[in-house]
Specification:
Blueprint (H helix, E strand, L loop, with lengths): L1 E10 L2 E6 L10 E2 L2 E3 L6 H13 L2 E14 L4 E13 L9 E5 L14 H11 L1
Parallel strand pairs: 1-6
Antiparallel strand pairs: 1-2, 1-4, 2-3, 2-7, 5-6
Amino acid sequence: MTEVVAALIWKGDRFLICQRPPHKARGLLWEFVGGKVEPGETKAQALRRECREELDIELTVGDVFMEVTHEYPDITVHLTLFHASVAAGEPKLLEHVQIAWITPAEIPQYDFCPADEAILEKLRREYG
């Protein structure tokens, strides 16, 4: 199983989502910013590194919002989504096709990675 971390970053009543590059697995689907935990990293360290690499932002990592295990045909992931905030920088498109700040009510307008479905349902329930 692959350990994956992601960030739930809020700006007012909107949260950040990112569209995956077309050449990657689950290309052009939307997701929360994040990625794989490398050997020797804590989950928080991995999340800060991924946000620097993918968006050129520094992150303050908070509490866990939710954990999900999902089996894709090619990989099984254990995803930990953290509450987080931007400590420095403005998100830049270094990895993704697009980024968007959306409200929970706007979730149905986007095609997300299947691993995010339970998280999105919780977001609609708690913040919608």
